[in-house]
């Protein structure tokens, strides 16, 4: 027996008044102007490039560094370094950097478009895809990192940390909840959502190819007869796109264009040199490990660190090399980090690009490169002072840097798998992930603070309403009442059901709209509903630190002890509910 009749009446009265309160809240939230106000103020897409406009030119002389006059706490959230695993920088002897999308932030609107157009040209000219593809347009804002591409079904998915698919598109058509459930909802045979049937969109390099794949899926559905003979299924489309993209990276399509005009494709960053100087001054050894080859690395690093002004020209300048103790190009990460990797290490002659095998001493041409035209390499006088390598393994690197324990190394990269997961898992290096999308995400988080609080309150109200309803339904079914009480109960149950449906829908809609303020298709990068997204789950597991931009290191002492925020179990988040 749960209630006496008089208790029941009391509880009904309180439920009813709660219902009125909901109704008021509902009206309040129902006024769409509030949402539209936010919608109009918030850029609905996240952008890959963090907004750096607030930095100003003074940064060049170090004034904005943590040690400068302008240092202030708390640090602007967009510049903060967030900590998943405590890290005392005093124990770090060597700091390494990845180059592409870590030190060099590519401009998505130009660089990804270049990759998109180059890939289409290869599909049409090398793989017999119809020439009408050449007219296709690319929306560089559409795709985001963290999505999973289902090669067999031609779908793209966003999932939560438990690998439940929460948003799914086939081509550019969103799957209904029922279709999504039918395709991905079988809890008994949960997929790993990994290669070979799935591809993770975990680097910013993959956004253009994911977009193109979805376009091809729609195209194949609409015009199956127009596809080239081999493209009989979606997986084959994916393979073709992949090989076309791969070729763009290898044959100079992308790199020659960047070398011709770096400022068109790469954001300048006046804080790179102050950051490197500051870290070097602190006594740390600095190294660069990039998958890019020497000539391209020189172009990009020269642009970032050289004194080439804002015209986009790249005058000869070798100064960037002086900030690094060791530079490894063509590193073939993540294999570079693997235990037992026996890849030979070559020393690069930086003035000719020729390779010298460090074991046999036989000079040879750069492996894997096409030779970029118009790139001026350093002259022979500087080559003795700086050591640049190609290939090799982490064991070579540890030797070159005299590293005894891998926990003395911090590596900063952008690729969760290639840079972070392997170096952390295989080696135990400490890691920092650069997530440029974070800056825009933090902006929207800030702007939606009030609205998210209200949605969370609505969620609590929904749950309370549901509990009240379940309770009354139970009483109706299992207890004996006078006819009069029975009638009142039935009325109340009917009333609560209505209220519950309204609040439920209101909460669902509010949450959906709020998510779409982050990105109109995929929502918040780090969340799916109330759960962490698969992407943020990986960030949490493998990146000791994460931040929106590599030069945010400028705002902290190189001896800082980064400490994690407190973990919370659900029961600790009860607040004053007693
Ligand atoms: N051959 C391919 N190269 C690729 C692909 N995607 C990216 N890249 C190249 O890798 C490096 C990344 O450098 P890092 O500094 O981040 O280690 C850069 O040169 C890219 O062009 C690909 O699909 N195929
Ligand atoms: Mg990179």
TrEMBL record:
Keywords: Coiled coil, Hydrolase, Magnesium, Metal-binding
A molecular function GO annotation: hydrolase activity
InterPro entries in UniProt: HAD-like_sf, HAD-SF_hydro_IG_5-nucl, HAD_sf, Pur_nucleotidase
Coiled coil: 479-506
Residues at which Mg(2+) binds: 98, 414
Catalytic residues (UniProt): 98, 100
Residues annotated to bind GMP: 100
Co-factor binding details: Binds 1 Mg(2+) ion per subunit.
Family per similarity comment: Belongs to the 5'(3')-deoxyribonucleotidase family.
Protein name: 5'-nucleotidase
Species of the source: Physcomitrium patens (Spreading-leaved earth moss)
């Amino acid at each position: 027996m749960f209630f006496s009749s008089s208790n029941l009446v009391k509880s009904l009265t309180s439920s009813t008044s709660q219902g009125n309160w909901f109704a008021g809240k509902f009206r309040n939230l129902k006024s769409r102007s509030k949402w539209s106000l936010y919608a109009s103020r918030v850029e609905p897409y996240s952008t890959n490039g963090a907004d750096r406009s607030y930095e100003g030119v003074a940064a060049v002389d170090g004034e904005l560094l943590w040690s400068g006059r302008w240092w202030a706490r708390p640090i602007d959230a967009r510049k903060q370094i967030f900590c998943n695993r405590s890290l005392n920088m005093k124990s770090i002897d060597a700091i390494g950097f990845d180059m592409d999308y870590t030190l060099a932030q590519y401009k998505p609107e130009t660089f990804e478009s270049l990759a998109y157009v180059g890939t289409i040209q290869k599909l049409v000219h090398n793989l017999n895809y119809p020439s009408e593809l050449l007219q296709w347009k690319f929306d560089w804002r559409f795709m985001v990192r963290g999505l999973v591409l289902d090669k067999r079904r031609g779908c793209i998915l966003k999932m939560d940390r438990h690998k439940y698919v929460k948003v799914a598109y086939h081509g550019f058509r969103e799957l209904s909840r029922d279709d999504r459930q039918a395709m991905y909802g079988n809890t008994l045979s949960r997929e790993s959502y990994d290669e070979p049937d799935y591809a993770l969109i975990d680097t910013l390099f993959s956004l253009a190819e994911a977009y193109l794949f979805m376009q091809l899926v729609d195209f194949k559905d609409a015009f199956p007869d127009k596809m080239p003979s081999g493209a009989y299924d979606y997986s084959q489309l994916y393979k073709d796109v992949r090989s076309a993209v791969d070729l763009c990276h290898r044959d100079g399509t992308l790199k020659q264009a960047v070398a011709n005009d770096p400022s068109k494709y790469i954001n300048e960053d006046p804080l790179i040199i102050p950051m490197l100087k500051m870290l070097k001054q602190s006594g740390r050894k600095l190294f660069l490990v990039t998958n890019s080859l020497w000539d391209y690395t020189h172009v990009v690093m020269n642009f970032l660190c050289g004194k080439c002004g804002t015209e986009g020209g790249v005058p000869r300048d070798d100064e960037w090399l002086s900030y690094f103790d060791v530079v490894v190009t063509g590193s073939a990460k993540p294999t570079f980090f693997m235990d037992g990797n026996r890849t030979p290490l070559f020393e690069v002659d930086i003035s000719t690009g020729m390779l010298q095998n460090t074991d046999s001493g036989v000079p040879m041409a750069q492996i894997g490169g096409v030779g970029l035209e118009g790139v001026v390499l350093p002259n022979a006088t500087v080559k003795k002072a700086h050591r640049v390598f190609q290939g090799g393994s982490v064991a070579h690197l540890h030797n070159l840097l005299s590293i005894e324990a891998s926990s003395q190394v911090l590596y900063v990269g952008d690729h969760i798998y290639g840079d972070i997961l392997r170096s952390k898992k295989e080696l135990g290096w400490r890691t920092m992930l650069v997530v440029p999308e974070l800056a825009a995400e933090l902006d929207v988080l800030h702007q939606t603070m009030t609205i998210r609080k209200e949605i969370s309150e609505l969620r609590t109200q929904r749950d309370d309403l549901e509990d009240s309803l379940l309770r009354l339904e139970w009483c109706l079914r299992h207890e004996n009442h006078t006819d009069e009480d029975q009638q009142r109960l039935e009325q109340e149950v009917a009333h609560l059901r209505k209220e519950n449906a309204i609040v439920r829908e209101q909460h669902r809609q509010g949450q959906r709209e709020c998510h779409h303020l982050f990105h109109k298709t995929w929502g918040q990068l780090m969340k799916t509903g109330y759960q962490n997204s698969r992407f943020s789950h990986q960030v949490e597991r493998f990146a000791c630190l994460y931040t929106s931009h590599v030069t945010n290191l400028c705002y902290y002492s190189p001896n800082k002890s980064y400490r994690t925020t407190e973990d919370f179990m659900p029961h600790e988040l009860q607040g004053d509910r007693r």
